[in-house]
Protein backbone atom coordinates (compact mmCIF):
# COMPACT_ATOMS: atom_id res chain seq x y z
CA UNK A 1 0.00 0.00 0.00
CA UNK A 2 1.70 3.23 -1.14
CA UNK A 3 -0.14 5.19 1.54
CA UNK A 4 1.56 3.55 4.51
CA UNK A 5 4.30 1.40 2.95
CA UNK A 6 2.59 -1.80 4.11
CA UNK A 7 2.14 -5.14 2.39
CA UNK A 8 -1.23 -6.83 3.01
CA UNK A 9 -1.64 -10.57 2.71
CA UNK A 10 -4.86 -12.55 3.13
CA UNK A 11 -4.78 -16.12 4.43
CA UNK A 12 -7.03 -18.81 3.00
CA UNK A 13 -9.69 -20.54 5.11
CA UNK A 14 -9.46 -23.93 3.42
CA UNK A 15 -6.92 -25.24 4.00
CA UNK A 16 -6.43 -23.29 7.20
CA UNK A 17 -4.07 -20.31 6.96
CA UNK A 18 -1.01 -20.21 9.19
CA UNK A 19 -0.32 -23.08 11.56
CA UNK A 20 0.77 -22.34 15.13
CA UNK A 21 4.38 -23.34 15.84
CA UNK A 22 5.28 -23.70 12.18
CA UNK A 23 7.54 -21.26 10.34
CA UNK A 24 6.06 -19.78 7.19
CA UNK A 25 8.19 -18.07 4.56
CA UNK A 26 6.74 -15.61 2.08
CA UNK A 27 8.70 -14.11 -0.84
CA UNK A 28 7.53 -10.74 -2.15
CA UNK A 29 8.85 -9.58 -5.50
CA UNK A 30 9.64 -6.25 -7.02
CA UNK A 31 9.69 -3.79 -4.12
CA UNK A 32 12.14 -0.91 -3.72
CA UNK A 33 14.35 -0.86 -0.61
CA UNK A 34 14.96 2.37 1.32
CA UNK A 35 18.26 4.22 0.99
CA UNK A 36 19.53 2.65 4.21
CA UNK A 37 18.24 1.09 7.41
CA UNK A 38 19.69 -0.18 10.66
CA UNK A 39 19.53 -3.85 11.57
CA UNK A 40 16.27 -4.75 13.35
CA UNK A 41 14.88 -1.33 12.54
CA UNK A 42 11.91 -0.74 14.91
CA UNK A 43 9.95 0.83 12.06
CA UNK A 44 9.40 -2.60 10.50
CA UNK A 45 6.15 -3.84 12.06
CA UNK A 46 3.72 -6.72 11.63
CA UNK A 47 0.20 -7.40 12.81
CA UNK A 48 -2.73 -9.67 12.02
CA UNK A 49 -6.14 -8.05 12.44
CA UNK A 50 -9.30 -10.12 12.23
CA UNK A 51 -10.62 -10.42 8.73
CA UNK A 52 -14.30 -10.06 7.86
CA UNK A 53 -14.86 -13.83 7.97
CA UNK A 54 -12.65 -14.55 10.97
CA UNK A 55 -14.49 -11.94 12.98
CA UNK A 56 -17.57 -14.15 12.77
CA UNK A 57 -15.75 -17.12 14.32
CA UNK A 58 -15.50 -17.67 18.06
CA UNK A 59 -12.04 -17.31 19.58
CA UNK A 60 -10.59 -15.99 16.31
CA UNK A 61 -6.93 -15.01 16.76
CA UNK A 62 -5.63 -11.47 16.69
CA UNK A 63 -1.90 -10.71 16.68
CA UNK A 64 -1.31 -7.18 17.97
CA UNK A 65 1.01 -4.73 16.23
CA UNK A 66 4.62 -5.58 17.08
CA UNK A 67 8.15 -5.16 15.80
CA UNK A 68 9.49 -7.76 13.37
CA UNK A 69 12.06 -9.71 15.36
CA UNK A 70 14.79 -10.13 12.73
CA UNK A 71 15.47 -7.60 9.97
CA UNK A 72 18.85 -7.31 8.17
CA UNK A 73 20.50 -3.94 7.93
CA UNK A 74 20.41 -2.15 4.59
CA UNK A 75 23.72 -0.52 3.73
CA UNK A 76 23.60 2.63 1.66
CA UNK A 77 25.04 2.13 -1.83
CA UNK A 78 28.15 3.81 -3.14
CA UNK A 79 28.12 7.59 -2.88
CA UNK A 80 30.34 10.64 -2.40
CA UNK A 81 30.80 11.70 1.19
CA UNK A 82 31.91 15.15 0.12
CA UNK A 83 32.60 17.10 -3.09
CA UNK A 84 33.76 20.67 -3.65
CA UNK A 85 34.68 22.67 -6.73
CA UNK A 86 36.67 25.92 -6.63
CA UNK A 87 37.96 28.39 -9.21
CA UNK A 88 41.06 30.59 -8.96
CA UNK A 89 40.25 33.30 -9.84
CA UNK A 90 36.43 33.06 -9.75
CA UNK A 91 35.97 35.87 -12.29
CA UNK A 92 33.72 35.87 -15.37
CA UNK A 93 35.51 35.08 -18.65
CA UNK A 94 38.80 34.62 -16.82
CA UNK A 95 41.28 31.84 -17.40
CA UNK A 96 41.18 29.85 -14.19
CA UNK A 97 42.59 26.95 -12.20
CA UNK A 98 39.92 24.43 -11.23
CA UNK A 99 40.27 22.52 -7.96
CA UNK A 100 38.09 19.48 -7.29
CA UNK A 101 38.01 18.05 -3.75
CA UNK A 102 36.60 14.54 -3.36
CA UNK A 103 35.82 12.22 -0.48
CA UNK A 104 34.22 8.88 -1.27
CA UNK A 105 32.20 6.87 1.23
CA UNK A 106 33.62 3.55 -0.04
CA UNK A 107 36.89 2.34 -1.51
CA UNK A 108 37.47 2.93 -5.22
CA UNK A 109 39.90 0.69 -7.09
CA UNK A 110 40.36 -1.34 -10.30
CA UNK A 111 41.39 1.71 -12.35
CA UNK A 112 38.02 3.38 -11.73
CA UNK A 113 37.24 6.49 -13.77
CA UNK A 114 36.22 9.67 -11.95
CA UNK A 115 34.44 12.25 -14.10
CA UNK A 116 33.30 15.75 -13.20
CA UNK A 117 30.78 17.50 -15.47
CA UNK A 118 31.08 21.31 -15.65
CA UNK A 119 28.62 22.82 -18.16
CA UNK A 120 29.68 26.29 -19.27
CA UNK A 121 33.37 25.72 -18.59
CA UNK A 122 35.51 25.77 -21.75
CA UNK A 123 39.07 24.80 -22.47
CA UNK A 124 41.42 27.40 -23.95
CA UNK A 125 42.52 24.80 -26.49
CA UNK A 126 38.97 23.90 -27.48
CA UNK A 127 39.32 20.22 -28.35
CA UNK A 128 39.08 16.78 -26.79
CA UNK A 129 42.25 15.30 -25.43
CA UNK A 130 44.66 14.71 -22.60
CA UNK A 131 44.76 17.36 -19.89
CA UNK A 132 47.35 17.55 -17.13
CA UNK A 133 46.51 18.05 -13.48
CA UNK A 134 48.28 18.14 -10.13
CA UNK A 135 47.49 16.77 -6.66
CA UNK A 136 48.53 17.37 -3.07
CA UNK A 137 51.20 15.39 -1.26
CA UNK A 138 51.41 11.76 -2.30
CA UNK A 139 47.97 11.69 -3.91
CA UNK A 140 49.66 11.61 -7.34
CA UNK A 141 50.43 7.93 -6.65
CA UNK A 142 46.70 7.17 -6.88
CA UNK A 143 46.05 8.59 -10.35
CA UNK A 144 47.30 8.04 -13.85
CA UNK A 145 49.49 10.82 -15.19
CA UNK A 146 46.94 12.67 -17.31
CA UNK A 147 43.22 13.26 -17.36
CA UNK A 148 40.93 13.65 -20.36
CA UNK A 149 38.79 16.63 -21.37
CA UNK A 150 35.59 15.99 -23.34
CA UNK A 151 34.45 19.13 -25.18
CA UNK A 152 30.92 17.86 -25.91
CA UNK A 153 30.21 16.99 -22.27
CA UNK A 154 32.36 19.72 -20.72
CA UNK A 155 33.71 16.92 -18.56
CA UNK A 156 37.10 16.11 -17.07
CA UNK A 157 37.99 12.48 -16.32
CA UNK A 158 40.84 11.00 -14.32
CA UNK A 159 41.66 7.32 -13.79
CA UNK A 160 43.10 5.46 -10.83
CA UNK A 161 46.38 3.65 -11.37
CA UNK A 162 46.43 -0.16 -11.52
CA UNK A 163 46.41 -1.57 -7.97
CA UNK A 164 45.73 1.89 -6.49
CA UNK A 165 42.92 2.19 -3.94
CA UNK A 166 41.24 5.48 -3.10
CA UNK A 167 40.22 4.61 0.44
CA UNK A 168 36.86 5.58 1.89
CA UNK A 169 37.11 8.81 3.86
CA UNK A 170 40.31 9.99 2.21
CA UNK A 171 40.04 13.51 0.80
CA UNK A 172 41.93 14.18 -2.43
CA UNK A 173 42.32 17.37 -4.45
CA UNK A 174 42.74 17.51 -8.21
CA UNK A 175 43.89 20.79 -9.77
CA UNK A 176 44.03 21.70 -13.42
CA UNK A 177 47.00 23.64 -14.76
CA UNK A 178 46.77 27.44 -14.51
CA UNK A 179 45.02 29.28 -17.34
CA UNK A 180 43.92 26.10 -19.15
CA UNK A 181 40.17 26.61 -18.66
CA UNK A 182 37.89 29.62 -19.04
CA UNK A 183 34.87 30.53 -16.93
CA UNK A 184 31.55 31.67 -18.47
CA UNK A 185 29.92 35.03 -17.83
CA UNK A 186 28.41 33.71 -14.62
CA UNK A 187 27.54 30.59 -12.63
CA UNK A 188 25.10 30.13 -9.73
CA UNK A 189 26.51 28.95 -6.43
CA UNK A 190 26.14 25.19 -5.92
CA UNK A 191 25.15 24.72 -9.57
CA UNK A 192 23.00 21.57 -9.71
CA UNK A 193 24.28 20.85 -13.23
CA UNK A 194 27.82 20.30 -11.93
CA UNK A 195 28.04 16.56 -11.30
CA UNK A 196 30.65 13.96 -10.42
CA UNK A 197 30.54 10.20 -10.87
CA UNK A 198 32.76 7.11 -10.77
CA UNK A 199 32.57 4.36 -13.37
CA UNK A 200 34.39 1.13 -14.12
CA UNK A 201 37.64 1.34 -16.09
CA UNK A 202 35.80 0.56 -19.34
CA UNK A 203 33.22 3.27 -18.64
CA UNK A 204 30.34 0.78 -18.74
CA UNK A 205 29.31 0.27 -15.11
CA UNK A 206 28.41 3.08 -12.72
CA UNK A 207 30.15 2.61 -9.39
Structural class: mainly beta
Number of helices: 0
Largest sheet: 10 strands, antiparallel
Low-confidence runs (pLDDT<50, min 5 residues)?
Answer: 52-58
Average residue pLDDT: 86
Q: Please bin the fraction of helical residues.
A: under 10%
Choose one word for the global shape: elongated
Distance between the termini: 32 Å
Based on CA atoms alone, the radius of gyration comes out at 27 Å
Which strand-content bin applies to the residues? 25-35%
Oligomer classification: single chain
Order of helices and strands: EEEEEEEEEEEE
Count of DSSP strands = 12
Give the gist of this structure:
With 207 residues, the chain is mainly beta.
Summary keywords:
10-stranded antiparallel beta sheet; 207 residues; two-stranded antiparallel ribbon; mainly beta; 12 strands; single chain; elongated
Question: Please, could you describe this protein's structure?
Answer:
This protein is mostly beta strands and 207 residues long. The strands form two sheets. Strands 3, 4, 5, 6, 7, 8, 9, 10, 11 and 12 form a ten-stranded antiparallel beta sheet that branches. Strand 8 and strand 9 form a beta hairpin. The chain is elongated and about 80 Å long.
Explain the layout of strands and helices:
Layout: E1 45-48, E2 63-67, E3 80-88, E4 95-104, E5 113-117, E6 122-123, E7 129-135, E8 146-150, E9 155-159, E10 171-176, E11 181-182, E12 195-199
Antiparallel strand pairs: 1-2, 3-4, 4-10, 4-11, 5-9, 5-12, 6-11, 7-8, 7-10, 8-9
